[in-house]
Structures are given as C-alpha cells and as structure tokens.
Design goal:
Strand content: 15-25%
Number of strands: 29
Helix content: 40-55%
Largest sheet: 4 strands, antiparallel
Oligomer: single chain
Number of helices: 30
Shape: globular
Structural class: alpha/beta
Strand order of the largest sheet: 6-5-14-16
Amino acid sequence: MTNAITLPSQYDPKQTEAKWQQLWESSGVFHADPNHPGKPYCIVIPPPNVTGSLHMGHAFEHALIDVLIRYHRMIGRNVLWLPGTDHASIAVSTILDQQLQAEGTNRFALGREAYLKRAWAWKESSGKTIVGQIRRLGLSVDWSRERFTMDEGLSRAVLTAFNQLYEAGLIYRGKYLVNWCPSSQSAVSDLEVENREVQGHLWHLRYPLTDGSGYLEVATTRPETMLGDTAVAVHPEDDRYRHLIGKTLRLPLMNREIPIIGDPLVDPTFGTGCVKVTPAHDPNDFVMGQRHRLPMINLMNKDGTLNENAGEFAGLDRFVARKQVVARLEAEGFLVRVEDYKHTVPYSDRGKVPIEPLLSTQWFVKIRPLADAALKALDRRHSPRFIPDRWAKVYRDWLVNLRDWCISRQLWWGHQIPAWYVVSETEGEVRDDTPFVVAMNETAARAKAIAQFGEDIELQQDQDVLDTWFSSGLWPFSTLGWPDDTPDYRRYYPNTTLVTGFDIIFFWVARMTMMGQYFTGKIPFRDVYIHGLVRDENNKKMSKSANNGIDPLILIEKYGTDALRYSLVKEVVGAGQDIRLAYNRKTDESATVEAARNFANKLWNASRFVLLNLEGQTPSQLGTPRRQDLTTSDRWILSRYHTAIQTTRERIESYGLGEAAKGLYEFIWGDFCDWYIELVKPRLQGENAKAKRTAQQVLATVLDGTLKLLHPFMPHITEEIWHTLHQVGDSEVLAVQPYPKVNRRAIDPELEAQFSLLIETIRTIRNLRAEAGIKPALYIAALIEASAEEASIFKAGAADIQHLARLESLTIGTGLQIPQQVFSGVVGKSEVLIPLAGVVDLEALVTKLQKEGDRLRKDIQSLTARLNNPNFVNKAQPEVVATAQAQLAAAQQQLAIIEHRLQSLGVDDKSQP
C-alpha cells in the first residue's frame, strides 16, 4: 500500500466544526443569487427574540430547517435561507426597566430619546448573543441578508403597512375592552393570553332589591370587581327572574342603584342564573353594557391597583382588595357562601400574571376582512398546505373566531405608531376626541394636518408602539425588500416552506397569512411544516418556570454540533410529533446525543479504513466499476445504496426527516460498515489486483455518495471526510455538490432478500457461538440443512459466511447427517447447526444451562404468582401489570430455548426443580 491519504485516528468535532463554519461563511458559499438558474427555494428563519439565548427549541427547529435547505441546494434549487431576529418589545422593555429600577430611576425620568438610545446600545452589545450562538449550529444561512425587525428597511415596511391598512379603513382607534397586563403595563392581544386552570373560589353575594321585596343572589370569581357593577343580568326566558327585569337593586358597599336587565348572553345554569355586570372589566359584560347602554366604570389603575372609583379600597392591589371587599361583604351580611371552584384564568403570556380586562383607548385592526381572505385561500386552494394536515383545521378554527386585533402597546421600544395628534385642537392634550392624522413621517403628517386645520397647529406623535407581531406578520416579504419590487422579492416570494412549532400557529402563522394575502395577493408560503416540542428526560415540556431546560451549547461542547443536530432530527417519529431527549443533569450527559456521537465516530473510522485502502486514489481516479467485475456483495451494497438514495429523497420531500435520518443510520452503520466493509477485506488484502481495484471502486463510490446523502443531517463531519476523500482545496465544498440520484437499474430487491438471508445466517452462527461459549478467535465447523429453494443462495454466499462467521468448514445440503450434540437455529426455511463435540466443555455447558433454567423457573413462578393475585392485578398501575406480563412472557420464551438446547445435548431438563 503506497501514498495512502487518511484521516486522523480520532474525530475532533470542535476543531472540524469551527473550521467549516468559518470557511462556509467567509467564502459566501451560501449566498443566494436571484439571477442564478434553478427553481427558487426560500425559507426565512423564524426570528428568535434579540433578548434570547439558544435553547433546545431553536436547535431542534433550525436543525430541521437546515436539512431541508441543504438538501434542496444540493438537488439544484436556487436556495435562500434568510436569517434575522425580532426586536421583542416586551422582553427588551422588561430588561431595560429592571436595569433602570436598580439604578433608582425609570424610563419616564430618563425620557424617550435617552431611553431609546440606551435600548439600541443594549441591542448592539447583548442583543447579538443569540446570533453568535446560532452560528454554532453551522446553519447554511445567507448571513449577508441578515435582518432585524427594526432595521431601516423593515421599519419602512411597517410604516407602509400601517398607512395602507388605515387608508383602507382597516385600522381604527377606539375605546374598547382590552387584555391588560399589569406587569408590563401594556395591552396584549387575545393570542398573547395563556388560559390556565386554577383552583379558586366562587363567592355568592346577596344584592337587595330597592323596593325591599327581597334580593338576588349572584356568583362571581372576582368579587373585587363588584365595586364597578352597573347592572345584574338574567336570561330573558328564565321564569325564575323574568318578572324582575326592569326593577332595580342596591349595590352593596357602594350604595348605588343598578337595574336588573334581561340578556341572552346569561347562562341560566351558571350559579344562580343571575350575573353581576361590570362592563369595564369583563368581555361579556362589555357587550351587554354596550347593548343596554350601561355606564362603564373603570376601577383599575395600569399597575393593577384600584383607582378612585373603588372608594375606600382605592390604592389597594387588586388581590389585596379582593380579600378586603369579601371581608366587608361578610361583615355587612351580603356574603351568602363561598365554594371551591376550579376555573380558567387568563394569564399574560409575556408578563406571567393574570390579565385584567380593562377599558382603554387603543389602536385596532379590523380582522374579519383579513381573516376571511385567508380563509378563502385555505378553503378554495388549500393554501397554505399544513404538514401534518390536522393543523389545518386548528388554523381554520382560529381564523373563524378571531376578533379585532389590538395592535398598540404602551411601551417605547418598538415601531412608534405613525399617528400624529393635532393637540392644538384640544388644549395641548391628547384626549379621546383629539383629531389625528396618519402618515409615513412627521413632515407628511404636518402637511396633512395643515390642510385640515390650518397653519397654526401643534402635533404630537402617539407615544405607543405597535405590537411586535405586527412587524413579524410582514416578515416573509418585508425581509425580501417589500414594499419595493426588488429582485429578491420577485425571485423568492412567496417563500417555499415555513417550519415552526404548533404553539405559534395563532401568534405568527395566521398573522403572516392574513398580512401576506392582503399586501401581496399571495399566501406567503406554500407549505407549513409544524414540528413538535423537545421534551426533557421525564417527557415534560421544557420551560423557564419549570427550570428543566437543557442547554444545547453544553451538549455541543461535549459531543459536537453534528451529534446534537442529528440526534434531534433522528428522534422525530412522525411530522409534528414531540421528541424526548435523554439527559443526566448531574453529569450534563445525554445518551441520545452520545449515540449520535458514536455514529459520527463509526462513520469516521469506516472512512479512515476506506481511505487507507484506496492507496491515495480519489473516486475520480478510480473510476466506476464495471458491472461484469462486480461480486454478489458488490451488487448487494450498490443495490442497498441506491435504495437508500431513493428512500432518503422520498422521505425528505415528504417531510419525513426523522425517518430519513434513521434510514441513513441503518444503511451506514449496518449495511456499509458492519457488513460490506467486512466482506470486502479479503479482496483488499489479497493478491488479485483486478478484484482489489473493483473493491476499491465500489468502496469509493458508496462512501462518496453516502457522505452526500448524510450531509444535510451532519454537515461538518461529512464535509471534512469528503475533502480528504477527494483531495480538494477549500474552493470546493461538499455543501454545493449534487445530491445523489437513484439508479433504479442498480436496485435488485431479489438480491437484497437473498443477501438478507446470508446476513441472518451469519448472525445466527455468531449467536450460537456466543451461547455455547465458543471463543471468538476459534474457527469451527457448521452445517446448513437447507431447503431446496434456499440451497443455491447459501452455496453462492458460502465464502462470505465462512469469512464473517469464522468457520473452517461449512457443509450445505439437504438430508445431512446431523451430529448428536449441536446448537441450532432456524433461518428462513433452513436450519443452521454447529457441532459442539471437541469445541466446548460439554459438561460445563450443561451445568451453565441448567443453572440458567433454574433461575428462569423461579422467576416464572414468582411472576405467575403475582399475576394470579387479584390484589396485584386490580390495584397496581396498568403499566406495572403490563411490565410483569411482558417479563413473564420473556422468561417463558428464554426457558423454552434453554430446554431445547439441553435436549440437543442429550439432557432432559424439564424435570429439574
């Protein structure tokens, strides 16, 4: 062997991965060119919050996307994967407000200009953390196109969208009930509300009739809001109370006279059938208040304390006020009873506190025209296509039920609402009746205002910012240059695929489809691939509150990026399914990722062997093997290889990424490494030059193609091996090589079935040797009592069987004379036997088998007794009973094998105790 070029003895992922990540980025190999040929394939990254750090959800989602991106690039598509981050209004504001509070000040004392200057400085320093961490994943994104939801281009897109919607009458300003988060002191949309089931109470209160004829009993879960009641409602068809509609009650504690109204929104089966109506603090009450023209009394300050309308309870926190109001009601005889009550409480997804329905003047989008257009696209064109398709119904249901979208947030970090109030018309103040103009900038706003109100005007821009999801809703097309007709926009819009979690179908996906359909006339992506969650070692959802997250960077340091990426993708059983990641929190080790690292090492060592045996020749130098020179094992591995190409391509095209990863694992580890490389060794070490060269050609062909097949899943290690195999410089990279194409003529299902029989025969002989305690280095004899149809297969593969099963002789035939003391196993329709006389200590083997039989009988006796015990079967957990049943069946099967083995040795062991 001369001029061998090979790999280091051990794979070092840290060195290799850093090298290729730097080279890919610096060489611009992933730079997209809209002028290049090829059908476009575009994914815009689901933008992580600029406040965030890499978590396992990011690693999982980005690994899935990168498989799709690298695959489609290699099959010749014109690929763009566009990266970027979201400005995360509430999260950034929370961080800055905490910093200012620690310094003894706040944003109002600092002033808006200074506050935003500080926010941008924070974004430039700390805000790039997640971008740097994402780079560790080796993603094939076009970093030259990195976007930020508040960069100049995207900000112009946001202004354009707002102005167009306003001019079309789809954005309005009004006083409505909104979800208020006292923690962030901002309105939040319906989609940013997390409904949690809590164990609370139902307070029954007595409201006296003003005519002294009695009282009505109402039930409430929020007794402090009774201070703002302006009516009590009953169902108009409820015979119990219909005669009282139109009469009045005296509101306890507040001594206010309020009417009894009839309204169909009332559920007669809830509580007593009488409900208190607080229009300023409950969505249903708000609707009834509008319908019956009731006063709307706001009790709440923005920080969750009660205001002056709460009388003596003013200034108290809402939950402190609850206790004191209940105490007063009880003291004055208005509390009837309190019962435990499990119910749903809406929490702010951002602030993590119960939201407060609050009457507030806000900006809204009329959602029905947008939602109806998206519904039409779904119902008529099945656009977008959801994978799995069950999510289409969930998406549709949300579009049907959406209410107007509150888009204003009482924050300073974000896109400031492009509305200017003509405060000179309202004594220099912004009031609900202050006129305003909407424009792209202050200059345009001033021109509009002058045209309406004359030269002598004073303008003040709205202080609020837009909901972050407003700019995120434009992401698929604003990132490509919209509202300008750019080359990127023309080439890559609509995007091809959106990969995202099911938990933001409503937050993000629906907003993008509505905005995309409205502004571009097109749904912004063809496919929506919905993935599941990464669950922890106990199969629980990872969350900050549960403190059970797993840091992907720790696992990358320990096992390498490729190992983490591959393990996450391989764990996916089906599209949209959650995956579970094994993890030891004491040692920061993961058996799941370690298995993927072992796979990488297996590929590395196999490649190293191949390179050593190619004698310095590259695949192109070796050329393609001639079909007439191929052995049975050559034709088998080439058939398996092209089968792998076919199934891998089909699975990726249908989003079966986990299945594709598992299939490649089985082909590489099993077919190629464990079988073909072992089968080919005699030819590589033999004197037949022609046979040796054919073996080298097949090895080089299959290894080269295998690296290409695996590259989307494990890009770094495959790039490193491929470069060594082809002996090329950094100007060529595997990442842009053509993906293997299937040669269906090379696929031979009959040959594969025949070879599977040979492999199973070798496995059976190896197992029989191990059971008999035969030393691995010892060459022995074996016999195959072959069926007529299988005899020719065994004879054709006899040399391979002997080589891999370490046999000095192999007898194949029908009606063979079988020695007395043998171990045997069934393969296909034939029987494989190994004579034991003179090979093992038969007496010691019998003793060993008898002891094992005794142990199994005791286990069977114990398990049978447990399963015959009604107390165990009826009281134990079902999974415990199922485990015992499985253990019993396994023990019985093992005992049957032991007894058969002893019989073949001439010992009847069934009578043993």
